[in-house]
Amino acid sequence: MSTLKEICKEQTEMIDEMRQNIKELTEENEKLSEQYNKMLEERNSLIDDLSWYKAKVSRLERENHDFKKRNALLMNTVDDLDKENKALRIQSNTYFDEWQESEKQRNEFISYINLYTTLTNHIRMKAEANPGVSRYIDLVNYIDRLERVDDEN
């Protein structure tokens, strides 16, 4: 059997061992507590970030909705401008066709003026070259009367 001294020694060793275990467990507990506190801080930070991101998503959704409205309005405006552009092109083409026709008529009129001038100059030259021929003189007088009437109008 063991003596009291041995029993005390064994119990003292057990107590020391238990103290050592308690010390190790306490240190481990402190480390776990620190880890837990860090995780809580991170969790709280993530919760704060989450609310910030939710607010940002809401703002972006509102902006997106506003942009969609603006886009729809701009598309309507573009459609209206396209229609107006087509109408202006048609009108422009009509004006161009009318201008071409008037140019054609103007050129034809200038051609008639040139022919008229050539004819009247020829008749006047004939009248000057042949002063005794009354028909040339009569034609010159008639031309002068016509030109005087045109000048008065």
Which properties best describe this structure?
153 residues; mainly alpha
Query: Span from first to last CA?
Result: 159 Å
- How large is the count of helical segments? 2
Can you write the helix and strand succession as a string?
HH
Globular, elongated, flat, extended or rod-shaped: what is the shape?
rod-shaped
Number of strands: 0
Structural class: mainly alpha
Helix content: over 70%
What proportion strand?
under 5%
Q: Please mark out the parts with pLDDT under 50 across 5 or more consecutive residues, or reply none.
A: none
Mean pLDDT: 93
**Biggest sheet features:** none
Backbone CA Rg: 57 Å
Task: Note the topology.
Elements lengths: L3 H126 L4 H19 L1
Helix pairs in contact: 1-2
Explained architecture:
- This protein has 153 residues and is mostly helical.
- The chain is built from two helices and no strands.
- The protein has helices at residues 4-129, 134-152.
- The longest helix is centred in the middle third of the chain and has 126 residues, at 4-129.
